[in-house]
Design goal:
With about 230 residues, the chain is of the alpha/beta class. The protein folds into two domains: about 120 residues, Rossmann fold; about 100 residues, Arc Repressor Mutant, subunit A. It is built from nine helices and twelve strands. It has a five-stranded parallel beta sheet with strand order 2-1-3-4-5, with helices on both faces. Strand 11 and strand 12 form a beta hairpin. The N and C termini lie far apart (about 45 Å).
């Protein structure tokens, strides 16, 4: 009975899987079908993009290992079309890739089908702990999506960490050295220009006018603070 209930629950989730049939050793479609997901299959990125005119997937899985590519260009195309939809990118073991900023999860083969299912399950119901909101600013720390007024953007994990730090202490100035030390996990804080660059990227993501910020403000000579109040 429990297994049947799980299958029925999984069926509520529509997955778009971009996976080549030409590489049977790196395929997950059969395993996902057995788990009861609504599975829409595409054997290349271009076809998958066209399918978005017909379906709205709950989650996108790009099996770049089966396509014999690193998948970055494909992920970017999907992200441009669906900025809020979670994307899992699967790469080959030998692929020289450590980050995929436009993907929510990067998985490197080899791993079991159950591990992929576990990652999918994490997006079934987004935990409230992953959702932060202050005024018009909303951040999902699980999907790395930020929304502010009419703007939405997918952040890199580091930008998400920065914004999360600011949102947990609204209107409180956070010293630049503290932000740099905690987010970059380093004791070297003599040069924090990298932090300033990331703050600039955050402003582009959420500010109506990034050159005249109203949300993330600079405390001259000290640090940055979020100019919003919890309601």
């Amino acid at each position: 009975m429990a297994k049947k209930s799980t299958l029925q629950d999984n069926h509520k989730m529509k997955l778009l899987l971009v996976e080549s049939k030409r590489n049977p050793g790196a395929r997950f479609s059969s395993a996902l079908e057995r788990k009861g997901y609504q599975l829409v299959l595409s054997d290349n990125g271009s076809h998958g993009i066209r399918l978005l005119d017909e379906i709205i997937p709950s989650l996108i899985i790009i099996n770049a290992a089966s396509l014999r590519t690193n998948g970055l260009r494909i992920v970017t195309r999907f992200r441009n079309r669906l900025p809020k939809t979670p994307i899992i990118l699967i790469i080959a073991e030998e692929e020289n890739l450590t980050e995929a900023p436009q993907a929510n999860i990067l998985m490197r083969l080899p791993f079991t089908a159950q591990k992929l299912v576990n990652r999918i399950q994490s997006y079934k119901k987004t935990s409230r702990k992953s959702e932060m909101r202050i005024g018009s600013l909303e951040l999902n720390t699980q999907t790395n999506m930020v929304t502010c007024n009419d703007k939405s953007a997918h952040l890199t994990p580091r930008l998400t960490q920065l914004l999360q730090m600011l949102m947990t202490q609204p209107r409180r100035v956070i010293p630049r050295e503290k932000m740099f030390k905690e987010i970059w996990e380093t004791d070297y804080t003599e040069d924090t220009r990298t932090l300033d660059t990331h703050i600039s990227w955050l402003r582009r993501a959420i500010e109506a006018d990034p050159e005249n910020p109203q949300i993330i403000l600079t405390a001259r000579g000290s640090g940055y603070f979020l100019n919003l109040s919890e309601e």
